[in-house]
Each structure stands twice: as structure tokens, then as C-alpha cells.
Amino acid sequence: MSVWAYSTEGFTRSVHRIDGVETVVYEIGEGAPLVYFHGGGTFHGFEWARDLADDFRVILPMHPNFGESGDAEFAGIEDYMMHYEMLFAALELEEFHLVGASMGGHFAARYAGEHAEEINRLVLVSPAGLKSENAAIPNFAGIAPEDVPAMFVTDPQWIEPFWPREPSPEWQALRDREADAAFRTREDADVADGKLRAALEGFDRPVLLLWGENDRIVPTGFIPDWQAVLPRAEVVVIPGGGHLLLDENAPSREAARQFLLARAG
User: With left for phi above 0 and alpha for psi between -120 and 50, is residue 124 left, alpha or beta?
Assistant: First the structure.
């Protein structure tokens, strides 16, 4: 019996050794390839991808140092970018849609900017990475641990199975490992902002900025900053949506699906 609250039934699982690092990749569906970069935790799974499986081959790699993937001595985002160059070559992906959420949105934006020729359409779901004078990501050091889970969602009851009040040792070990890995990916804010802006300069693929109206982790105040960098991007703000937007909110999945299915006009 799984110790996790989510199900992987119907997904295929493969393991790829990339430059000595084992990377676990889940897939579901058929159609145009769609790669998803998850954020700073895998504890809630990716069952939301079932809603896109009729239209896309949804490819869900677990970052090294996260989830079921192996340990890697990665010091920053550049290491992940190089890793994904090699993984996508191993998967024989030449052109694909790319979706990323939160930290994964930062990854996706950087990768897309540096490899625009591989990207069909890009969806950034409340992405991190840019500085803003209008908003800030919360400092969790000042927040009581028991109050943190509810900050990620609109409905606190939704997250309870995935973030238990009394977690098992396995669950806590996963969170500790992933929190440490996420911390190690962080660059100086000015450095990260500068690299991201440089990578996306002149980016000409269709982009959707997808946000939850009530996101308390990466607030909607960041949207103008992303619009300044990606002036042709479409923006969809989901009423009542929180930070785990694709997981919790079906209209956000439909918005992403419609954008990805749209023909270039």
C-alpha cells in the first residue's frame, strides 16, 4: 500500500539514468507531447494530468533530488537546465509544449528562453523567478508550521490528505529532502531576475500566464512584472484559485488545455 495520498494508476513509469543521476518520469495520454515541471514539492502528485490525457502525451519528470528521482549534486538552476537537455534528448523530444508551476515555472521559463526552438507553447502557472516591487513570496520562517498548508490552497480540506497534520516518517523525510533541494536551487534574487530576463528577451512562442486569484505563495502582484518581460503573453486569472492551481482547480486545467490546443493565428 502506498504511503502517499495520490494515485499513479493509469500512468506509465520509467527510469532514466542521465549523467549518473536516476530520473523517474511518469507519463499519461497520447497526442502532442507536453512536459510538466513541478514546483518545490511532489507530495500532492499529479493526478490533475488525467484531465489533459485525451489530448496530450503528458510527460511528468520528477526533478533530481525530488520525489522518486535520485540524488544529484546540483548547486543551482543551470545544473537542472543541463540535466533536462540530456533527458529530453533521451526521450527523443524535439518539439513540445512546456508547462511549469511555481519553482517549476521558473525552470520552465529559463529552459524555454534558452531553447526556444524546442518549445511549441509555454504555460507558466504562478511562476517564481522575477523580482517585483508590487509583491513578494512570503517568509515562511515567520509562519507557524500548522498554518503553512492552508496557504497553498483555497480549500484547506483539499490539502489535508496530501499534507497530514501528523505526517508519517516517510512523508516528513520526503518534505525535508525536497525543501533542502528547493533551497539549494535558489539564486540571489537579482541574479535570478537578470538571468531570466536575459533568457526570455525576444522569446516569440505563445505564452499563457495562469494564476489563481487568491494565490498566497506567488501573489498576482507579480503578473505585471511577467507581462513586462513577455508582453505578448495571454493572462488568465482563475477566480478563487490558490497556489496549487492545476491540482485543486478544474477551470485552470481547462484554461491550459484550451490554450495548448489553440492553433497559431
Answer: beta
What b/e readout covers 37-71, taking b as 16+ CB neighbours within 10 angstroms?
bbbbbbbbbbbbbbbbbeebbbbbbbbbbbbebee
Please report, for the domain that includes residue 199, its CATH number. 3.40.50.1820
Cα-based distances in Å from 154 to 47, 147, 172, 240: 18, 13, 23, 7
Express each pLDDT in 192-247 by its tens digit. 999 999 999 999 999 999 999 999 999 999 999 999 999 999 999 999 999 999 99
Query: pTM of this prediction?
Result: 0.96
Provide the domain limits for residue 149.
Answer: 12-261
In a domain, 230, yes or no: yes
Structural domain total, the chain: 1
Residues β-bridged to residue 7? none
Angstrom CA distances, 87 to 25, 101, 123, 199, stand at: 10, 19, 20, 20
Read off the pLDDT of residues 29-45 as tens digits, 9 standing for 90 and up.
Answer: 999 999 999 999 999 99
Answer whether residue 16 is part of any domain. yes
